Amino acid sequence: MPNHLKSVSFIGSGNVAYGLGMELRGHITIDKVWSRNSEHASRLASKLDCIKAQSLDELHSSDYVIFAVSDSAIAEVGYKWNESFNGEDHDIIIAHTSGNVSSEVLNPSGQANKYGVIYPLQSFTYGRKISMKRVPFFIHGSSDTVIKELCDLAGLVSNSIHIMGDQQRKNLHLPAVIVNNLVNHLVYLAEQVVNSDDLKIEYFIPLMEETVKKIKSIGPKQAQTGPARRNDVEVIESHLNRLEEFPELKEVYKLLSNSIINLYHENNR
Questions:
Q1: Are 115 and 106 in contact (CB under 8 A)?
Q2: Which CATH number characterizes residue 154's domain?
Q3: Would residue 152 count as lying in a domain?
Q4: Parent domain of 53
């Protein structure tokens, strides 16, 4: 561990704070956790074997403070954090973990001089510990020094560190939501059909795993198969009929099937 990395505290006690904290705790001292939800802060502090802070000014002893809160709360918490110093200078590096929020929200008064972003491109669920060695971290900072410090911090848990500005990171966030959150919801919708036919979603796990492997090896365009790829109208119509009792999924199925047909068969239309 680089000798300038000493301690880190978390503002927030949810999924990201848990996931990142559990990985960092083996490499750096986790000092404190503060959250507006006192019960959640106590729970996470117990997991991380650290102190639950009663107020933001108790985090002033840390070298890093990570704002692992919802996007809508970052600006408000950033303002309260700056207020907690009563105008005094400090040397603490603060960083939020959002892919979609500018780093500048951490500097509302223009007085902060060490702030940035440490954004892990991964899905986190409280209670689920994952290895971050291959997880890409995207770093931005208010100065080259801050960028280096945040890269060193992320480098404690990941081998994939990338420096990226606010706008480019926002551009990254949209496809991340599509391939993770929206695909997951598609699986949920498919699960409703599966359950209605007394089948098990476990039957489809190897299929999903192979899809991901093919995307990695040959790319999504080459990996595409299925009735829409073949422009098999008869099969598509039978599926749409089956989905009459699932009108929301029926519309999604129709929209995505048409998109696939347009991509691969536009010259035949």
A1: yes
A2: 3.40.50.720
A3: yes
A4: 7-164
Identify the CATH number of the domain in which residue 188 sits: 1.10.1040.20
* Residue 123 phi, psi (nearest 5): -95, 130
User: What contacts 207, CB < 8 A, 6 or more positions away?
Assistant: none
Q: Looking at the structure, do residues 184 and 236 belong to the same domain, yes or no?
A: yes
Considering the domain architecture, whether residues 198 and 247 belong to the same structural domain is answered as yes
Total domains, the chain: 2
205 and 252 in a single domain? The answer is yes
Q: Is 15 a member of any domain?
A: yes
Residues 65, 150: Cα–Cα separation, whole Å: 11
- Residue after which a domain boundary falls, among 144, 164, 184: 164
pTM over 0.70: yes
Residuewise pLDDT in 10s, the chain (269 residues) = 554 668 999 999 999 999 999 999 999 999 999 999 999 999 999 999 999 999 999 999 999 999 999 999 999 999 899 888 876 767 899 999 999 999 999 987 776 789 999 999 999 999 998 999 999 999 999 999 999 999 999 999 999 999 999 999 999 999 999 999 999 999 999 999 999 888 999 999 999 999 999 999 999 999 999 999 999 999 999 999 999 999 999 999 999 999 999 999 976 55
Q: Give 47's contacts (C-beta < 8 A, 6+ positions apart).
A: 18, 21, 22
Tokens of 108: 């509302």
1 lies in a domain? no
Cα–Cα dist 152/72, whole Å? 27
Cα torsion through 162, 167, 168, 174, rounded to 10: 110
DSSP secondary structure string for all residues of 99-112:
SSS-GGGG-TTS--
